Amino acid sequence: MKAFIAATALALGLPAFAQQEAKPLPPGREALSIPYDKYALPNGLEVLLARDPKLPVVAVNVWYHVGSYDEQPGRTGFAHLFEHMMFQGSKHVPDDVHIALLEQLGGTDLNGTTNFDRTNYFETVPSNQLATALWLESDRMGFLLDALDEKKLRTQQEVVKNERRQGVETRPYGIAQEKFWQTLFPAPHPYHGKVIGSMADLNAATVEDVKAFFRKWYAPANATLAVVGDFEPQQARALIEKYFATLPSTPKPARPEVAPVKLTGEKLVRHDEKIGTLPLVVIGWLTPPYLSEGDAIADMLGNVLGTGKSSRLYKRLVVDKGLAQSVSASQQSLGAQSVFTVEAVARPGVSSDALVKEIDAVLEEMRRTGPTAAELDQARTRFETQMLAGLQSVGGFGGKADTLQSYNHYRGDPGYLVHDLERYDAVTPERVRDFARDTLKPTERVVLHAVPSTPSPSPAPSKEKP
User: Fold this and answer.
1) Torsion of CA 348, 349, 352, 357, to 10 degrees
2) Chain segment 294-345, per-residue pLDDT in tens
3) Does residue 38 sit in helix, strand or coil?
4) How far is 415 from 394, CA to CA, in rounded Å?
5) Cβ(124)–Cβ(109) under 8 Å?
6) CA-CA distance, 260 to 186, in Å (whole number)?
7) Most distant pair of Cα atoms in the chain: their distance
8) I want to staple 45 with a disulfide (CB 3.0 to 4.6 A). Which of 41, 338, 358, 466 is the partner?
9) Which contiguous run of DSSP H or E holds residue 126?
10) Which of helix, strand or coil describes residue 258?
11) Taking the model in full, what pTM does it have?
């Protein structure tokens, strides 16, 4: 079948699909796979096509393989700033018209996001508007710089700086959590700091800086286009050829090569909290990268420890001891190195040191005995439900198009979903116990104590009669 598709494409003058060796699907999971085709244009643009005709809509989703990990010291926040600039008009699209035009055509799920590892843009449109969506994406990919000027840059700088004020500087515990993250990843590591960047770097950005960043990272060779939904494959390939194949490209840029950070002791961060009114504790460990060995184990452990009212930490700190008003545990999976965190907010009158003591007691139990099989089964069900729920839609954040893009970005295999689920199937109580013992060591972590300047009052004594 693949040979027939390739021959047909060549006969039509279209790019042939890449011939890739697919990993066999495990029995019983075939129905969960997303059929797709993958090929590349001569300028290096990757294309993913997945037909799903259940609804008369089609998702267009573009990933640029650049995030804050790829920024230079002193020029942080560029990847996120560009997420804003890409909606400000290009050579053939007037300022601030991109979203409005798609909405007039019935488009939904119109957005862009940036993280440490990538930047994406997506929209879902009626099937008969695929050409318009592709044209808009191609125009800003190929002709954004023709319309970029000082006024647009300064406007978006102020927008992003205001986002930073709201999300970091005036948010409860925002500055404290930034300090915590910077301690986990000391400068000049690319993960140092927030994706949004620093105020100093945002202020220092020039038009020429921004143009140079675009030329390097926003070339077709560093992007992947996914089209998922109700479309005719030949028509879609012809439209992609029309709008994208003529865009010039530079070679795919090399991403930074950075040695993993190794914590050699416990590092304490004590922060005088000015906005939050209760003590906050965050404990973090450096863990394996996304989709690598140990990443799924960390996911499962976080779920057992801190998801839901039946989780270990909630039962101990909130229900049994009454020390915390909230507690969570999770694995933040990243491309270069992940972070496992436990976070708790104290109840009035409870110290951050008391929280750390009880968290350590729960972790020590996990290191000795591990979770029960029932706890893992519950966690596994949660993850599978969460992962598969997004596949109900073709577009939007976490939909089919985004799923294909994510696995393509991190594994080079858009169809990795079924094998991702296998990772969770393979987690056992013993593997979780060993991970907690060998990776979540008390001597290799960062502990944040964010304590309000004015301590919260102790709870008033009960007036109930005995």
Assistant:
1) -110
2) 999 999 999 999 999 999 999 999 999 999 999 999 999 999 999 999 999 9
3) strand
4) 15
5) yes
6) 11
7) 88
8) 41
9) strand 119-126
10) coil
11) 0.89
